[in-house]
Design goal:
alpha+beta; Chloramphenicol Acetyltransferase; 2 domains; 6-stranded mixed beta sheet; 12 helices; 16 strands; 25% strand; acyltransferase activity
C-alpha cells in the first residue's frame, strides 16, 4: 500500500522544567487497575497551504509537555506514581511513498494492520512499562508520486488519557480574543480512596478473575466503558487528567439477545445505574471488588456458558477537531493489537472485531447494511 521510511527519531522534552514540588504524580486506584498500554490511533490530514512546519510542531509539543508534565515522565515499577522527570516524549518522523493520493487510500479503507505501520512503536514496545515513554508520536508525510505530500499524525495516547486541552494546545497559536483551553487538573488521586492491598504477589485488581468461557454460548455479556466525569455531583471537569472511566457489565440470555430492544434496554439501564451513589462507593471505598462483584453476580445468573463483548465510544474525545496546524483530520484510524468481540465507535465509523464466522453473518445483516457504506 505504501513504502515507509523512517527519517528521524528524537526525544522532545518540556520547554520548561517541572518544579520539584510537582515531581511525583500519584495515580488513583483506577489508574493502577487499568491495563498498562498505549491506545494507538492515527489522524490523517490533507496538506493545506500555510500548514505548520515540523519545527513548529516540535516547539508546540515541547511547550505543551511543560503544561501536561506527567506525559513527559516515567511510570514507576510498582505503577503507583509517575516520576515527572522531564524525560520527554518519543517523536518519529517518516515518509510513506504511495501511488495513490491520501484521499483515495482513506476512501478505500485501511485495516488495523495498515494503521499499525504508521505507529511510532510496535505493539510490544508501546507498553507503558517502567522506562518506556508515556507519550509517543509519529508524523508521517505521504508522498504521492504525482502530487504534493500530505501528513498524518499518529500519537499513541499515554497511560492517562489526556483531556482535550492537550490537542488544542498542540494546534496553531490562538488569537488573543479566542478562549484559551482550561489548564489540566492533576488531582484525580485525591478523589479516590487509596487501597493498595495485595492477594499474594498480585495486585488486588489483577486477582479477580471471571468464569472460564466455554464453546457453547447460551448467554451474552456486554461490558461497556463509561466516562465517570459526568456522573459525579457536581460533574468532574473534562480537564481532569487520568482514567476517569470504568467498565460496567450487563448480561442477556440467548433468547433476549434476539430481541434487540430488550438488549438495548438492559444496556441503557446498566449505564444509568452508575449514578451519584454508586460513584460515591467507587470514590470512598476500594471500587474494584464492587465492580467484580457485579460481574460475578451476572455470571451466577446466566451460568458458565456466556460470551463477552466489549463496547467503547471515542466520539466525545474530539479527535476530529484536533487541529495540529493542518486543519481538521479527514479520517481517524485505530491501530494496536486486535481484540476479539470489540466494538469501538469513533463518530464516523464503528470498528468491529469478531470471529470469522460471526463476522460473515454480521456483514450480511440487512439492518446493519442499511446504515453502512463499506467494510474494511
Amino acid at each position: 500500500m505504501w513504502e515507509l521510511e523512517v527519517t528521524s527519531k528524537e526525544t522532545i522534552t518540556p520547554s520548561s522544567p517541572t518544579p520539584p514540588h510537582l515531581r511525583t504524580h500519584k495515580l488513583c486506584w483506577i489508574d493502577r487497575c487499568v491495563k498498562v498500554l498505549h491506545f494507538p490511533f492515527v489522524l490523517f490530514y490533507q496538506n493545506p497551504a500555510g500548514a505548520h512546519s515540523l519545527p513548529t510542531l516540535k516547539t508546540s509539543l515541547s511547550r505543551t509537555l511543560s503544561i501536561f508534565y506527567p506525559a513527559a515522565g516515567e511510570l514507576d515499577p510498582d505503577h503507583t506514581f509517575v516520576d515527572c522527570n522531564d524525560r520527554g516524549a518519543h517523536l518519529v518522523e517518516a515518509v510513506a511513498t504511495t501511488d495513490s493520493p491520501l484521499s483515495e487510500l482513506v476512501a478505500r479503507g485501511l485495516s488495523c494492520c495498515s494503521v499499525n505501520t504508521l505507529l511510532p512503536c510496535s505493539n510490544n514496545s508501546c507498553r507503558n512499562n517502567s522506562g518506556n515513554p508515556l507519550l509517543s508520536v509519529q508524523i508521517t508525510t505521504f508522498s504521492w508520486r504525482r502530487k504534493s505530500p500530505s501528513p498524518s499524525a499518529s500519537p499513541t495516547k499515554s497511560l492517562m488519557p489526556a483531556p482535550p486541552g492537550f490537542r488544542h494546545r498542540m494546534g496553531p497559536p490562538q488569537r488573543p480574543e479566542e478562549a484559551q483551553p482550561p489548564l489540566p487538573a492533576f488531582n484525580a488521586a485525591s478523589l479516590y480512596a487509596q487501597f493498595y492491598k495485595r492477594d499474594g504477589d498480585r495486585p488486588l485488581c489483577d486477582a479477580a478473575r471471571g468464569r472460564r468461557q466455554r464453546q457453547a454460548v447460551e448467554a451474552v455479556m456486554a461490558r461497556i466503558v463509561v466516562d465517570m466525569r459526568g456522573k459525579a455531583e457536581p460533574p468532574l471537569p473534562d480537564s481532569l487528567f487520568g482514567n476517569m472511566v470504568w467498565q460496567v457489565a450487563t448480561a442477556v440470555t440467548e433468547a433476549e439477545a434476539k430481541l434487540k430492544s430488550r438488549f438495548e434496554e438492559k444496556v441503557s439501564s446498566t449505564i444509568k445505574n452508575i449514578d451519584r451513589e454508586r460513584l460515591r462507593e467507587y470514590t470512598e471505598t476500594d471500587g474494584w471488588p464492587l465492580r467484580e462483584e457485579t460481574v460475578r453476580e451476572i455470571a451466577d445468573e446466566v451460568g458458565d456458558d456466556w460470551d463477552v463483548y466489549f463496547f467503547t465510544s471515542w466520539t466525545r474525545f474530539g479527535f476530529y477537531e484536533a487541529d495540529f496546524g493542518f486543519g481538521r483530520p479527514i479520517w481517524m484510524g485505530i491501530g494496536g493489537p486486535v481484540m476479539r468481540n470489540m466494538v469501538t465507535l469513533t463518530g464516523m465509523e464503528a470498528w468491529v472485531t469478531l470471529e470469522e464466522e460471526d463476522m460473515i453473518r454480521f456483514e450480511r445483516d440487512e439492518e446493519i447494511l442499511a446504515y453502512t457504506s463499506s467494510y474494511v
